[in-house]
Structures are given as structure tokens and as C-alpha cells.
Amino acid sequence: MDLILIPGFWLNGDSWNDVAPALRDAGFTVHTPTLSGLHSVDDDRSDVTLASQIAEVVALVDSIEAGREIVLVGHSGGGSIIHAVVDARPERIRRAVYVDSWPTADGVAINEELEVAGDEVPLPGWGEFGEADLRGLTDDLRAWFRRIAIPQPVHVARDPQRLHDPRRYAVPVTLVASTFTREELDGYLAAGHPYFAELPHLASLTVVELPTGHWPQFTRPADLAAALTEAARG
């Protein structure tokens, strides 16, 4: 089974380094791609779009031998990318796992409120994040995160999601909830919150609570690896 792990904003494939070894030890083939615009702080991000990053992951799916089972994992903004990949290749995906994220609906941008500098979105100051986001992120982790952070291409943050194939709803979904609970999610759904417009249409939804901050791959990597292993095998 192949696991494709897509990082959230400001991160490249190395952000999974504390999670991927346990997944490989569990027998999975693990892919941790770094998407365009996120290889270096010096990258040209002007032509990187949400659609172009999605196309990169679709190409990776297409490169995997037919018949192999594929599980997509997306952290934070990476959740929007994997959802579009599910939409593009629903017949290839065994399960989609959203790490402190969820499937972004058609027409919705990942985050239009982040402050922009030219063609990029720098990592904001910690005061711009909620208290729940920062749980478990020690001073040392914050300093390290800021050292490795790469500005996000602005078009990835602001381009609207585009979905086309209702077969995406048949692909089982797991939400690994780190900054919200199942009870809170049920409240959002009952209120018809637009961020969660895709969830009522899913044929299969599993919610796994992993209480910590928004970056469990840094704050609880072993527990996240265990949750991903269980989701993939489930």
C-alpha cells in the first residue's frame, strides 16, 4: 500500500520526517513530496497555483502501478489538495486522511485572510494563531519551525477549489482532529458551516481525536503515525 503525505502551508516533504519511518516500519510505501514553490525560500512562486500543485500529486498517483492501493494524507492546507486529487482520481484512492483538516468544497479557497507579501504568504507571527493551534508547540519547536518555514505561494492560498466528480464522496474519509473534537464538528455540521459542506455527502466518515496543536507531526509524531496506520489499514 502506498501512502502519499502532503504537508500543510510553509512546509515541505521533510516535515514528515518524524512520522514516515514508523509508517515504513509498518510496511507502507511512503511518499513525502515537496510541491513546487516550497523547495527553498528562494523559489519563484509567482506561477505556482492550487491547480498546479494538485496536478503534481495527480501525476504522482498516476505514476504508481495500477492495482496498488493508495491512501492520501493531507495536513492543514494539504487537505484541500488531496481532496481535489480524490476528485480527479476517485477510482485510485482507497482512503483520504485529513490531519487537522477537512475536504474543502468547490469554490472555497484554503485561506484568503493570510497576510501576503508579493507572490507569497510568509509564516505569520505566533500571535496570529489561536491558542488551540499552538498547543504542544514548545518554544524550541516554534524556533525550529520558523527556521525551516518556506513562504507559501499566494495563489495556493487564495485560488478557489474546483471539483467535478461526485464519485469523490464514495472514497472513505478519516479526519484526525487535533484542535477540535467530534462534538465540536457535529456542532459545525448542525449549523451548516460552509467550511464543512462536503462532509454530509460522504459515504464513510471516521473522526479520530488526537488532542494537541495544529501540527501533530511535530508535537505527537508517534501518535500521529499510529493513527495514520490504523486509518490506512481500516
TrEMBL record:
Residues annotated as domain AB hydrolase-1: 3-227
Domain of life: Bacteria
Organism of derivation: Herbiconiux flava
Database matches in Pfam families: Abhydrolase_6
Annotated InterPro entries: AB_hydrolase_1, AB_hydrolase_fold, Sec-Metab_Biosynth_Hydrolase
GO molecular function: catalytic activity
Signal sequence range: none
Protein's recorded name: Pimeloyl-ACP methyl ester carboxylesterase
